[in-house]
């Protein structure tokens, strides 16, 4: 008891309990993961990593490796069922390997497929959709259509991280792969040129601020009204606000900021612009107005192809056919469908976006019934379907998908369901409920919305065997 309360001398920490330490008779050797051996890459995983197996049969996901290549690899993460690795030495290259167009490719986590030819990327994305559907027992006829455009200079929206390190150095750019660390970006070939040209000037501006640590991130967008810069700012600094205004005025930018920590409010620092994007529907041009924070497809050209494809697949619409557009946003599909003669009820969760959807319909001279509802609420969704049975339902949900809605649709036997998805795994999970209820996938497509990345958009048109008869009933005046 004499030693009670005295500091004991430290002992080396082993990472195991004393009992475990006593039981351990000999040091355990690290697992043999085959590192340093030469592997042949057998395929691409959904996220674009090469897939191979070691001599012991363990699966290895190798970043930067392409099918058919022989590589010496280095493991950077060991898991029970597989290892994650990167290429140490490229022994034999694939004929589809190309030089990445971006100087930041090796560090930036934004574009992970720039080392694969554009055609190869798109074939991979078509294969991913096929595989995800096949896992659910869905096998549409033929191959999915490809909706694509340019591989560079296409992205009209960007969110730039801002960080001040311990030495006061300012970093502005995108996150590194598998990290919260920012990679300083001087140019980005996938951004539209007007946005890429701002990267270096913006970093210089932030470096000269009095309180750069108060800047959370920057949002850039290009629209018909020009370039908009939105600053996420924790609190006001009058001197820095003056610098932001001078920067915007000198470059003809629209400037706003989200200010505050818990419930940030949007505040315009230059005159409020009329932000808008255009869609061409036959001979009619539709204008979609939006505000910062609204969802807007990043690739304008591919979005136009998706809308045109949706209209072609659903053509001809029966006169006055009722269409229910769920997750409608600001009207990306609702307004073109209304322009084709459909009676559209558009439903969105965000009250602000519902207001803009309704205003967009009025400004384009179109009739769309815009409603706000929680589309994760089964009771609300059931009410929407039972109020006026539609001939067609359009779904364009976020990455989480719309499984509950698809279960309801399977019960209500809606003649046609057009599902637009940004995640092929949740699309397949949801679509199987319709297929099990007798629906058939009649059309399908992959949209290369984000070239040089593993991300893909996809579209399925699912039709009931009795679609024609049901649609005639759904086009009445009731």
Number of strands: 23
CATH superfamily of the largest domain: Vaccinia Virus protein VP39
The domain tally reads 3
Distance between the termini: 90 Å
The CATH architecture classification of the largest domain is 3-Layer(aba) Sandwich
Strand order of the largest sheet: 7-22-23-21-20-17-18-19
Average of the residue pLDDT scores? 88
What name does the CATH topology of the largest domain carry?
Rossmann fold
Rg measurement, Å: 27 Å
- How much helix is in the residues? 25-40%
Treating each run of at least 4 consecutive H or I residues as one helix, how many helices? 12
Q: Structural class, please? A: alpha/beta
CATH C-level class of the largest domain is Alpha Beta
Give the overall form: globular
The main pleated sheet reads as: 8 strands, mixed
Strand content: 25-35%
Fold and architecture overview:
This protein has about 475 residues and is an alpha/beta fold. The protein has three domains: about 40-95, Nucleic acid-binding proteins (OB fold (Dihydrolipoamide Acetyltransferase, E2P)); about 125-150 and about 300-475, Rossmann fold, CATH 3.40.50.150; about 155-270, Beta Barrel (OB fold (Dihydrolipoamide Acetyltransferase, E2P)), CATH 2.40.50.1070. The protein contains twelve helices and 23 strands. An eight-stranded mixed beta sheet has the order 7-22-23-21-20-17-18-19, with helices on both faces. Strands 10-9-8-11-12-13-14 form a seven-stranded mixed beta sheet. β12 (about 225-235), α5 and β13 (about 255-260) form a beta-alpha-beta unit. α2 runs parallel beside α11 and α9 runs parallel beside α10 (about 405-410). The N and C termini lie far apart (about 90 Å).
């Amino acid at each position: 008891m004499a030693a009670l309360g005295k500091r004991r001398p430290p002992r080396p920490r082993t990472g195991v309990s004393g009992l475990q330490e006593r039981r351990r008779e000999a040091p355990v050797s690290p697992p043999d993961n085959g590192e340093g051996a030469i592997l042949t890459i057998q395929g691409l995983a959904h996220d674009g990593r090469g897939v191979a197996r070691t001599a012991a049969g363990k699966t290895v996901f190798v970043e930067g490796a392409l099918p058919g290549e022989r590589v010496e690899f280095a493991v950077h993460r060991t898991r029970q069922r597989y290892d994650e690795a990167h290429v140490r030495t490229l022994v034999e290259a694939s004929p589809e390997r190309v030089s990445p167009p971006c100087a930041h490719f090796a560090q930036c986590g934004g574009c992970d497929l720039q080392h694969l030819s554009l055609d190869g990327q798109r074939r991979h994305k078509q294969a991913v959709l096929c595989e995800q559907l096949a896992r659910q027992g869905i096998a549409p006829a033929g191959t999915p259509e490809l909706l694509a455009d340019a591989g560079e200079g296409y992205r009209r929206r960007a969110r730039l991280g801002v960080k001040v390190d311990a030495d006061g150095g300012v970093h502005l750019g995108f996150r590194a792969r598998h990290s919260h660390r920012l990679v300083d970006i001087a140019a980005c070939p996938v951004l539209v040129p007007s946005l890429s040209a701002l990267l270096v000037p913006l970093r210089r501006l932030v470096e000269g601020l009095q309180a750069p640590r108060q800047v959370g991130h920057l949002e850039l967008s290009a629209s018909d009204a020009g370039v908009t810069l939105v600053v996420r700012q924790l609190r006001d600094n009058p001197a820095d606000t003056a610098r932001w205004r001078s920067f915007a005025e000198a470059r003809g930018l629209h400037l706003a900021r989200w200010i505050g920590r818990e419930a940030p409010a949007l505040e315009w620092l230059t005159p409020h612009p009329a932000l808008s994007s255009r869609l061409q529907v036959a001979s009619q041009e539709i204008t979609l107005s939006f505000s910062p924070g609204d969802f807007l497809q990043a690739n304008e050209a591919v979005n136009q192809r998706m809308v045109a494809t949706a209209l072609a697949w659903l053509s001809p619409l029966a006169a006055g056919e009722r269409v229910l557009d769920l997750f409608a946003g600001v009207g990306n599909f609702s307004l073109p469908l209304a322009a084709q003669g459909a009676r559209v009820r558009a439903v969105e969760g965000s009250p602000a976006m519902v207001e803009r959807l309704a205003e967009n319909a009025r400004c384009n001279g179109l009739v769309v019934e815009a409603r706000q509802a929680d589309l994760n609420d089964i009771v609300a969704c059931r009410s929407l379907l039972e109020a006026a049975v539609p001939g067609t339902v359009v779904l364009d949900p976020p990455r989480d998908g719309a499984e509950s809605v698809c279960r309801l649709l399977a019960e209500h036997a809606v003649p046609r369901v057009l599902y637009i998805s940004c995640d092929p795994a949740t699309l397949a999970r949801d679509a199987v409920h319709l297929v099990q209820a007798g629906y058939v996938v009649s059309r399908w497509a992959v949209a290369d919305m984000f070239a040089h990345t593993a991300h893909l958009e996809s579209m399925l048109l699912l039709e009931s065997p009795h679609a024609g008869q049901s649609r005639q009933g759904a086009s009445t005046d009731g």
